[in-house]
Amino acid sequence: MSALLDWIVAYLCRWLPRAAPTGLVPIGYPDEGAPVLVTANFSLTVARVRRALRGRSVWLLVANSSGINVWCAAAGGLLTHHRVIDAVKTSGLAERVGHRRLILPALSAPGVEVEPIREATGFRARFGPVSARDLPAYLDGGERKTEAMRRFDFGLAHRADMLLPMNLPVYALVALVLGVFWPQHLLGFTVLFWSAVAVLYAFVDVIPGRTGWGQALFSAMLVAGAWAGADALVRGNPLAHRGWLVATFVIFLAAGLDLAGTVSPRRSDSEVWIDRLGLGGFGGLFAERDLGTITLDEDRCRGCRSCFEICPVGVFGELGPDRKTTFRDRDACFSCHACVTQCPEEALSLATPPRAAHRRAVRSSG
Ligand code: SF4
Ligand code: SF4
What we know:
The chain is mainly alpha-helical.
């Protein structure tokens, strides 16, 4: 019962750091030949990896990520090869297994380099699938990834998973105020809020707009317009519910604040504003990233395919006739830095757009 409660709290509060114990965890009855999977010490992640591996015998090496999930921690410098090296050395892993192989979570690629791990520990690390639920198939398939295992699709399942925990804090805060001062509006707010969130999360791929706020504004205009139109027909007054029309805009814009970053590879408006308010270094998570264009120096590329293996959105294609990597969908790049970090030849870079370069120059000159 307490494990279930713990999971519910971890799920609903997934936007908060929540640390699980670090170290080596046996799952099933692993022997010295069992695979070693690495993960971050975010409690929800550890619980999900353990659940995905139920019935198997593997070692789970939980590295310190300050209680933050794999992707955010790796992007924010809180899950690095140094922390994986620490985990290997302090867990006694080398005495427990006869091989020297680690399987890293694919989304740790922006922050974890494999070569320093090999040099410091003798363990050869490779990146496994993006999603924990693919781990059994990955292990059964000889530790080879299918195309689907490489991708983070931001699909409906991901959005449904994020909908409740990412919006509950705003809902709870407003509901508390309404419940105390204007309880007669609580039900209407509840229906409007969760309907707005559901619409945005379900149709984020097709709602026009470049940013989450832009999409939220467009949606609010449609809903408010339809509502006003219905009131004009039925009541003869398009502003019969003027208070709720205003609330529609406020609620949609609140729901859109973190929309892009939560359910798409775009940067969320909240991240942009945190940067603009000069809080870029807060927690290491909102550090200003160089949202640039992925660029290949063909002379350096030697066709190792690391970039193809690690890109979560399929930017890279097959090798060209000269055995250099090629771009399959360059526009899909969202500057996660994974391929830049992993390219052993430093052949990839993210060209900084002029505005971001200017902003950084101004800051460093201060
Ligand atoms: S990781 Fe670097 S060297 Fe390897 S294929 Fe990609 S660009 Fe070329
Ligand atoms: S191409 Fe872009 S999205 Fe893909 S791994 Fe590189 S930086 Fe990330």
